[in-house]
């Protein structure tokens, strides 16, 4: 795993949008880079509730249905109760 791969996952996890943008501009393939657990930056952004990064990654062709080594997709992770901020507000 390269330093860039580790950096993009850390940027996604820590809500560092400007760093993540710079890494993607340098190497667009990093959008779907896998870490040692099979997670993409989108998994980490969803896990940490980084809404702006989730949007950026999806806009840059992140695989939204990619399963990690445990079978979790970013959508599964974003559905956890502590990540409700990722859902758009709807009128009921």
Label this structure with key terms:
92 residues; mainly alpha; Serine Threonine Protein Phosphatase 5, Tetratricopeptide repeat
Helicity range: 40-55%
Broad structural category: mainly alpha
Stated plainly, the CATH topology is called: Serine Threonine Protein Phosphatase 5, Tetratricopeptide repeat
CATH fourth-tier homologous superfamily: Ankyrin repeat-containing domain
Protein name: Ankyrin
Pfam family, one: Ank_2
ANK repeats: 37-69
Keywords: ANK repeat, Repeat
Q: Can you offer a commentary on this structure?
A:
The structure is a single chain. With about 90 residues, this protein is mostly helical. The protein has one domain (about 5-80): Serine Threonine Protein Phosphatase 5, Tetratricopeptide repeat (Alpha Horseshoe), CATH 1.25.40.20. The protein contains five helices and no strands. The model has no long low-confidence stretch (mean pLDDT about 85). It comes from Rickenella mellea. Keywords: ANK repeat, Repeat.
Short characterization:
The protein is mostly helical. The protein is built from five helices and no strands.
């Amino acid at each position: 795993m390269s330093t860039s791969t580790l950096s993009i996952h850390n940027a996604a996890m820590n809500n560092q949008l400007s760093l993540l943008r710079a890494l993607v501009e340098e190497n667009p393939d990093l959008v779907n880079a896998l870490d040692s657990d099979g997670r993409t930056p989108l998994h980490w952004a969803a896990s940490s509730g980084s809404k702006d990064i989730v949007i950026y990654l999806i806009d840059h062709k992140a695989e939204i249905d990619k399963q990690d080594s445990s079978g979790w997709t970013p959508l599964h992770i974003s559905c956890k109760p502590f990540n409700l901020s990722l859902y758009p507000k709807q009128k009921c």
